Hints:
single chain, Rossmann fold, Heat Shock Protein 90, binds adenosine-5'-triphosphate
Amino acid sequence: xxxxxxxxxxxxxxxxxxxxxxxxxxxxxxxxxxxxxxxxxxxxxxxxxxxxxxxxxxxxxxxxxxxxxxxxxxxxxxxxxxxxxxxxxxxxxxxxxxxxxxxxxxxxxxxxxxxxxxxxxxxxxxxxxxxxxxxxxxxxxxxxxxxxxxxxxxxxxxxxxxxxxxxxxxxxxxxxxxxxxxxxxxxxxxxxxxxxxxxxxxxxxxxxxxxxxxxxxxxxxxxxxxxxxxxxxxxxxxxxxxxxxxxxxxxxxxxxxxxxxxxxxxxxxxxxxxxxxxxxxxxxxxxxxxxxxxxxxxxxxxxxxxxxxxxxxxxxxxxxxxxxxxxxxxxxxxxxxxxxxxxxxxxxxxxxxxxxxxxxxxxxxxxxxxxxxxxxxxxxxxxxxxxxxxxxx
Length: 393
Ligand SMILES: Nc1ncnc2c1ncn2[C@@H]1O[C@H](COP(=O)(O)OP(=O)(O)OP(=O)(O)O)[C@@H](O)[C@H]1O
Ligand SMILES: [Mg+2]
């Protein structure tokens, strides 16, 4: 036999003596053979056991061979079958083949068919092996195609994002020139006027408003520029602990007043990561300010960091704020996507992603509406890599 595990055969035949004879013969040839002495017993066995081939007698009291086949076909599960027919039963053989039987063999009184049986069985088994192999190949091909398609989609999305970012970059440089200079003049002159009016004890409410708004626009232009220039500069081996505490120092006092508690879980022996410290701090600031905005009634901010393996350190910032609706979650990294109206420019997370991408790291946001949001950032370890991993672009 060709198969490594012995093939499992069920003989369904009411002629007990004959069936036993065939069973002995096939067992000697290396098959594992079960017997059923009528159609119903055979069907019951098929329901509980898995067979490689059925050897079914056509003429049996109760359910005959064809009926057994029809029932199995209706159930949608039946293994290759060899039908045992009598002389002159060619119609039965044809019917059996139409039902999907693999082959048939004519029983002769002298028992010569017994000698033919092993070859017929082996051919049917071989046929089935080929069908199985073809199916496996098709499944594998299908899977490969699906993977390819998914990769193409991911890559296309990345390219679209890159396009949009490039556009924002161009826009930013343009804005900086076109708006930045006049803005400086407006702001500078307004400050000057305010100082003069203040010296004369004249109220400066309108000027205050002008200056405040000029500052806001200047901030926006600066943020755009940072975004456009978010390239890794001055990559060093840095301590995430230092970056985090530097940023927290800026927020601490206000957070305390507003009832936001901070849990900091950074192990002292945390490995350093590769990064530009000001940029990593900018990422943290954006993330923490977002968390702050999401907790107007106070809440808790948990920051943890752990080495994942030889390559990565993972930083997570988990807030107990409003959370993000599933329909927004897919868009929060888009430039200018904000749910904060006047208060937000929607560049915070786009900048974060730009910076982290340039560090060859990853940033992910998970969120449950009404429960809170977790930002997960993976950065490359600096102690296990021979040199900085980020090529200058
Ligand atoms: N921790 C968070 N909890 C709830 N929502 C968040 C959180 N972080 C981000 N978001 C959502 O993602 C949107 C985009 O964030 P992003 O930081 O890019 O822009 P922004 O905060 O609106 O504006 P900007 O940061 O430019 O001032 C936010 O408007 C907010 O809806
Ligand atoms: Mg933000």
